[in-house]
Amino acid sequence: MHISNRIKKLRQSSSITRKELATGIVSYSHYCNIESGNFLPNNDILRALAKKLKVAEEYLVRYKEDDEQLQDLLMQLLNKINDLEFEEADVLLLKIKEKYPLINSIYQEIMFYLLESYYCYRSRQISEGLRKFKEDVFPLMEENDVDKLPHDFEVIYYYMLAIVEFHKENYYISYEKFLRSLSLVNNNVLKGSINYNIALIFYKLHNIHKAIPYAVTALNIYLHEHQWQKVSDVYNLLGGLYYENKELIKAEENFLKALDIAKMQEMNDITERILNNLGMVYKAQGKINQSLDYFFKSIALKKENNHNPYIAYHSILEIYLEQDLFEDLMMTLEEAREYCESERDLYRLKMIEAKMNFKMQNYQVYEDYLQESISYFYEQNLWKYMDKIVEELGDYYHELRKYKIAAKYYKIALEVAKKWSLNN
């Protein structure tokens, strides 16, 4: 927690070069030593830098001076966020910003930025929380400074660090940081969140056996704390875990529990996801009418909430393909295309259209569409979308005795299988 980090952050946010900032104050090499933390500038230099950076002198000169009233407000804010009392937390955030437009103590400024990013993340402003942590906390401190923070803030630092690594898909690093946070945490609600996130990590790593106990621990904590929205989240996760484990009855039970609570709590965001998940369960059970009913309910709610219903449309198209309902499939394809957000989405639809054309004996269209899709997914390293389809095309050409083309796709299929397994 060196003043050099604050100076560097100010300089970069002002788009000033090191040379420009040093000119008229110190030599360029001297300034570089200041910014790297190798030299502690005196107050005269700090005042000159403050003037050039257009901030109050106190912001650079009094960086070691803590404010007792501010510390009390920071602790209140931490407790409100931990207990998910976001309206009260929002009031405290505004109060701190109004009373302290600049926080002189670099130590307390880091704590404030840490809480601000934590507040955003816990109140489901995920992108904003990650952005604030990366842009405001990272530049001011390094992990070897964390033991200088109060115990409760150390917990939050490791929690947010774990979240950042999770969203970068560095799941093992994220797991380590969550374990560190779990070993320090006292707040029960936050303990539930850490267990939930560890379960989510193991879900991403396809280790369902390890994920379920963490999810159950999170569920028991949230039930004890009467955190009903979080209870719904965990039931939804457990449903997903059992679904991946092909325990469809347990999956259905947990999704239905999640849905009941989500509806009672008027949680539209999670309700639309649960409806989609139940559609997947009934699809896997062969209950086609029930499956379609839940997918359409999910689509309706997503549209009502201005969310993209592409995933539910894709599942409906798969059902229509399996049931040879080609007229319904073609009509739904047109609707689904309106919600494609990327080329990947378009090519996933093209693969379904290819399979439909195969069933309709339009073999040239089948070949063209599948080849185009495979080429795109291969170039983009999107192996999971090619997992079985490449071998299917190889088999198709083998049946036609086009052995050279078949061999080409079998070779690609082996490569895809290898790369897909490495990524999982």
UniProtKB/TrEMBL annotation:
SUPFAM superfamilies the record matches: lambda repressor-like DNA-binding domains, TPR-like
TPR repeat placement: 232-265, 272-305
Gene3D superfamilies found in the cross-reference section: lambda repressor-like DNA-binding domains, Tetratricopeptide repeat domain
GO molecular function terms listed in the Swiss-Prot or TrEMBL record: DNA binding
Entry protein name: HTH cro/C1-type domain-containing protein
Coiled coil listed as a keyword: yes
Keywords, ordered alphabetically: Coiled coil, TPR repeat
Residue ranges constituting the HTH cro/C1-type domain according to the UniProt record: 7-60
Record CDD domains: HTH_XRE
Chain coiled-coil ranges: 46-87
Keyword Coiled coil recorded: yes
